[in-house]
Amino acid sequence: MQGGRRVSLLLGNIVDALGGSLEGGLRDTEVVRIAPLESAGPGDISFLSHPRYQQQLAASRAACVIVAPAMREPALARGACIVTDNPYAYFARVTQLWRQQEGRAPVLGVHPSAVVDEGAVVHPSASVGPLCVVERGAHIGAGTVLKSRVTVGADCHVGARCILHAGVVIGADGFGFAPQAGEWIKIEQLGAVRIGDDVEIGANTCIDRGALQDTVIEDGVKLDNLVQIGHNVRIGKHSAMAGCVGVAGSATIGAHCTVGGGAIVLGHLELADNVHISAATVVTRSLTKPGQYTGMFPIDDNVRWEKNAATLKQLHSLRERIKALEQALKAA
């Protein structure tokens, strides 16, 4: 039993639904759980995501393991396997198949405790969960699921087949204030938020409405829990951000980018398509070329860290001294 009611699948039914090649096993073999390699038992299906786990594969007691073609022979030496080009993606589809069998699909319609403004539009195939708020002029697309306590602000648009987890806030005011005589004058946030199709947003993530233009989240974007997206940010298609990422106002993130947990992208910067930011990195300049970027100070014991930090403060003066020595050598 993986989650709610008891679920079991036959290996033959899995490959019929998802493709792949079942080898070394019987179609009528029943699996009752999806499990990691190291803990899988005779009634479980597992997967091998990387060849470095080959030792765990050999020792696994799983009824069947999902593997890439390159790992076919080691897998067959152990027992039944499903061979597919992308085992991790195949595993993801197996979890979806499992959830379908559990019968835990969201209930369509609006929960009695939710508040939906009469000027909002909620597609009949959408699900609006307990204690949600959908404000005036907002639009919730087909097949979209709002889990409990989601707020969609006025005039914000959520596309089709999106999932917004508990506590998500779409369309709060962006952080905009103008200084005057030691005080802050509020800049009214007159834009909205536009979210494309097939977007998933983790619990307690906030996406602020734009000041003058809309904040835009394009199709297929995935945001983890506790992500903060500032006003007028644009995130390109199929980009993904891990927990506690912060993107400051008016930054533009390209398509197919990834941002590791706790990283920060400063405002008004641009990241090209296929830029990948390591966890805890602070992005302080625009990145115009695809690639992996890292900008974090490695952890160390505190005494050594303080010495290294003090040395970093002297790098500029050391550079100037080296340049002066080089010029003196050339002149000699």
From TrEMBL:
<dbReference type="InterPro" id="IPR020573">
    <property type="entry name" value="UDP_GlcNAc_AcTrfase_non-rep"/>
</dbReference>
<keyword id="KW-0808">Transferase</keyword>
<dbReference type="InterPro" id="IPR007691">
    <property type="entry name" value="LpxD"/>
</dbReference>
<comment type="similarity">
    <text>Belongs to the transferase hexapeptide repeat family. LpxD subfamily.</text>
</comment>
<keyword id="KW-0443">Lipid metabolism</keyword>
<protein>
    <recommendedName>
        <fullName>UDP-3-O-acylglucosamine N-acyltransferase</fullName>
        <ecNumber>2.3.1.191</ecNumber>
    </recommendedName>
</protein>
<dbReference type="GO" id="GO:0103118">
    <property type="term" value="F:UDP-3-O-[(3R)-3-hydroxyacyl]-glucosamine N-acyltransferase activity"/>
</dbReference>
<feature type="active site" description="Proton acceptor">
    <location>
        <position position="231"/>
    </location>
</feature>
<keyword id="KW-0444">Lipid biosynthesis</keyword>
<dbReference type="InterPro" id="IPR011004">
    <property type="entry name" value="Trimer_LpxA-like_sf"/>
</dbReference>
<feature type="domain" description="UDP-3-O-[3-hydroxymyristoyl] glucosamine N-acyltransferase non-repeat region">
    <location>
        <begin position="28"/>
        <end position="97"/>
    </location>
</feature>
<dbReference type="GO" id="GO:0009245">
    <property type="term" value="P:lipid A biosynthetic process"/>
</dbReference>
<keyword id="KW-0677">Repeat</keyword>
<dbReference type="Pfam" id="PF14602">
    <property type="entry name" value="Hexapep_2"/>
</dbReference>
<comment type="function">
    <text>Catalyzes the N-acylation of UDP-3-O-acylglucosamine using 3-hydroxyacyl-ACP as the acyl donor. Is involved in the biosynthesis of lipid A, a phosphorylated glycolipid that anchors the lipopolysaccharide to the outer membrane of the cell.</text>
</comment>
<keyword id="KW-0441">Lipid A biosynthesis</keyword>
<dbReference type="GO" id="GO:0016410">
    <property type="term" value="F:N-acyltransferase activity"/>
</dbReference>
<dbReference type="Pfam" id="PF04613">
    <property type="entry name" value="LpxD"/>
</dbReference>
<comment type="subunit">
    <text>Homotrimer.</text>
</comment>
<dbReference type="InterPro" id="IPR001451">
    <property type="entry name" value="Hexapep"/>
</dbReference>
<dbReference type="Pfam" id="PF00132">
    <property type="entry name" value="Hexapep"/>
</dbReference>
<dbReference type="GO" id="GO:0016020">
    <property type="term" value="C:membrane"/>
</dbReference>
<keyword id="KW-0012">Acyltransferase</keyword>
<comment type="pathway">
    <text>Bacterial outer membrane biogenesis; LPS lipid A biosynthesis.</text>
</comment>
